[in-house]
Write a structure and sequence with these properties.
Blueprint (H helix, E strand, L loop, with lengths): L7 H5 L1 E12 L4 E2 L7 E6 L4 E7 L16 H9 L1 E11 L4 E5 L2 E2 L8 E9 L2 E5 L3 E3 L2 E11 L8
Length: 156
């Protein structure tokens, strides 16, 4: 059975590691909002929940060992290099899309939003893109390329 005949719902379930997070402007300029070596995971569970975490490597460590004790500058720099949200998801097979329902988000403005991601599979790669959006005065087309993660090692 070819993977083209398998539903998005069945193919998307699992864990995926970020390969590239980029935006393309209307003039074709490509940029990487969290750097060319951004790291991330997105997980789609069989029971209909998802979680996405993406970060810029090399963020400055807090001086304090307490996760809630970073000063304002440390917290601002850490959050500025991180994108995270989770919630239910549903697949629109007809339009090759997945909808992320933002139940929790590092960016508070997204909480309660439903966001569409266009879905494209190519072998073990999953590309999620959104419709073009205007940022300041530039129209950008974001795309995230993910590779299916290898099973995590477990201890017996």
């Amino acid at each position: 059975m070819s993977t083209d005949s398998v539903s998005i719902t069945d193919r998307i379930v699992g864990s995926w590691q970020l390969v590239e997070y980029s935006t393309t402007s209307e003039t074709g300029e490509i940029s990487h909002p969290l750097g060319p070596d951004a790291r991330g995971l997105i997980i789609y569970s069989a029971d209909g929940f998802m979680s996405a975490q993406i970060m810029r490597p090399g963020r400055t460590r807090y001086r304090s060992p307490n996760v809630h004790s970073g000063d304002v500058a440390e917290r601002g720099e850490a959050a500025g290099g991180y994108l995270a949200y989770s919630g239910p998801y549903h697949v629109d097979e007809e339009n090759s899309a997945v909808w992320h329902e933002m139940a929790v988000s590092l960016y508070p403005n997204w909480i309660g939003n439903d966001q569409k991601r266009n879905v494209h599979f190519d072998g073990d790669l999953l590309t999620l893109s959104s419709d073009p959006l205007v940022f300041r005065t530039t129209t950008l087309s974001p795309a995230l390329v993910w590779r299916r993660a290898q099973p995590a090692r477990t201890t017996s």
